[in-house]
Amino acid sequence: MSRSGAGRSLVRARFRLAGPDALPGVVVEPAAGRPGHVGAVATRTLAEAGLGHLGGHLRLRTYGRPPGAAATARAVRRAVHRALAAARRP
Fold first, then answer.
1. Going along the chain, which residue ranges are E strands?
2. pTM score of the predicted model
3. What number is the average pLDDT over the span 70-87?
4. CB 8 within 8 A of CB 65
């Protein structure tokens, strides 16, 4: 039996911090699906890092079956953490 992965789902998220003069909040692209849920996850992750006053742009891409809420939330949290780590590097 071969595993082609056709029945699996994959979600990729990329987060880019907004500039210091931008309004706080998260823009989710594409807005299809559950943009409110993923925007809230990104906002909460920023707040937990002590940076709730910042905002940014979140881009989601999904492959295969629609991913569940937990998988999407994990991808969003990882993307925000990567963006914060990159912003702290000199």
1. 9-17, 25-29, 55-64
2. 0.80
3. 91
4. yes
